[in-house]
Amino acid sequence: MALHCTNHSFSEAAVRPAFETKVGRIYVGDSLDILSDPRVVSEGSVDLIVTSPPFGLTRKKKYGNVEADKYVDWFRPFGQLFRRLLKPNGSLVIDIGGSWMPGQPTRSLYHYELLVMLVKELEFHLAQEFFWWNPSKLPTPAEWVNVRRVRVKDAVDCVWWLSPTPWPKASNRRVLQPYSDSMKQLLANGYEARLRPSGHDISTKFARDNGRSIPPNLLAIANTESNSAYIRYCRQHRLPVHPARFPAALPEFFMRMLTNRGDLVVDPFAGSCVTGEVAERLSRRWICVELLPQYVEGARGRFVGQTTLLSGSTSRGGPDQGYYRIPHPALLWNGDDETPIPDDGSRSRR
User: Fold this and answer.
1) pLDDT > 90: what percent of the chain?
2) What is the rounded distance in angstroms from the CA atom of residue 349 to the CA atom of residue 61?
């Protein structure tokens, strides 16, 4: 597919992408300006906005980020724009990580405040909250996890799925998962159909083998990309690799569940354009916007030469292929641990 380069002023760049394919375009610039231009995208025409905006971190990143205490005000005009762009039955999916308060082991509420603003002020509906668990996440923040050992590692991002309507277009049949070994054994051996103490009525219908299971709202996706076609392209052309890429399986999950072929998907904080690559392979029309041109140059590597396989098409060996496991919290609980816990919560570094 041909890629078309442009270097123009904003008025021209707003209608001429940095490069494009038959179904998608990526623009360089501020998404507030570019996506407000009706020559780029018309209001009420977008089926899905899926994005991972810069998080409200206390430490500055090269790709730019906003301080947590100013985050809601910064994001508000984006939320207003997204509300106008989405179809009435469209969806907004935001992957957003949490943050720690400066100098202390307590959490910021900025991402929850963002959610409340979007729902209460901009009248989005929260369709469902998801949690992306990254099994390969390093034990951070180091000061609280490794040094003072007063917190466990932070390995989950919140993913807010919102819509202008309580009834967004969606089907979980698109994202079904294979039965686990324990479920297969349960179906083979049977179980007692009765009313549980919790009040749930486990009827004989639960013994029906549907072949696949409905996934939970916990998405276990390791973020371990280290030698992809994108990274090799960046190294070959001496371009910076974007440091905050979400794995392709994350936007792919929501594209499959919330859109049809030919639908329009938009990512206003595109980074290295993972969303565009997935949309291209799934035959969705797409628009990506990235503020920094050096990352757009690297994004070309996703659309030339060989691309990666679809997220679900790689094979893994073993009886539990495709499953991530998390240890039971009591796995190493053997008797009492007599090591005293400091009364000051380890405020004094030892």
Assistant:
1) 55
2) 27
